[in-house]
Amino acid sequence: MNNTATASFTVDGWDPQSTEKAEGTEFSRVLLGKTFTGGVEGTSTVEMLTAVNETSSAYVAFERLAVSVDGRKGGFVLHHSAGESGHHLIVLPGSGHGELSGITGTATITQDDEGNHTLTLNYEL
Could you tell me the CATH superfamily of domain 3-124? Predict the structure, then answer.
């Protein structure tokens, strides 16, 4: 059975750990935190690697969520990858724990004109 949970979130911190520029591309490691409200409630920590130059940018990240999804408490890991071909988020297989053990799925993140972020989680459990 496919389920959808939608939540707004805030980015609680953006902490660049290191930055290096090599041959026109800047590489960064960033730690950040988020707080979710809605169908997904709780917090997450994200470890992100970015590469940015004059014509493109990309990142990969792993996000550890300590949340409840539609009332089920636990957590899981989202694997992010983004670049010129789009933004992809998948639930890392086997990462679910607590009442979210066995969760699988994908997610999307949108941002409105005022800068508000929304996470939509499409999942099976």
Answer: SO1590-like (2.40.350.10)
